[in-house]
Amino acid sequence: VQLQASGGGLVQPGGSLRLSCTASGVIFSIKTMKWYRHTPGKQRELVAAIGSGGSTNYAESVKGRFTISRDNAKNTVYLQMNSLKLEDTAVYFCNVNEYGRNFWGQGTLVTVSS
Q: Which of 19, 82, 89, 91 has the greatest CB tally within 10 Å of its CB?
């Protein structure tokens, strides 16, 4: 299983970014895909999840600002991040559970700064 994430970068407060994560080695269409984020000194936080049927869940801190979506034809999950805040600065990881194990992408850094 491999997860390749991209799309991070530097953005000003109030700006937007879209993260992408492409999976291989899994039957993507039947898997729940998740985005986590990690800031040094804090626990890794589940940001958003999307089920195989398209149902979604979000952390309270990002509700109304972030949108998770998936394209099964491309084996890709997206995280659209709008109205970014300073506290959204973190390394973002995509995640899938396969064979009872968690697999992680390499992480993509999002920096929100003026």
A: 19
Distances 90 to 45, 65, 72 between C-alpha atoms, Å: 10, 16, 26
Q: Which residue has the tokens 């973190």?
A: 90
Q: Are 102 and 2 in contact (CB under 8 A)?
A: no
What is the three-state SS of 90-105? EEEEEEEEECCEEEEC
Only one residue has tokens 């009872």, namely 100
Q: Which residue, 2, 7, 9, 18, is CA-closest to 75?
A: 2
Per-residue confidence (pLDDT) for residue 40, from 0 to 100? 87
- Report which of 42, 43, 47 is spatially closest to residue 95, judged by C-alpha positions: 47
Render pLDDT for 36-68 as a digit per residue (tens, 0 to 9): 999 988 999 999 999 999 999 999 999 999 999
Give pLDDT, residue 113: 97
pLDDT value of position 36 = 98
Q: Are 15 and 106 in contact (CB under 8 A)?
A: no
Q: What is the pLDDT of residue 70?
A: 97
Q: Are 107 and 6 in contact (CB under 8 A)?
A: no
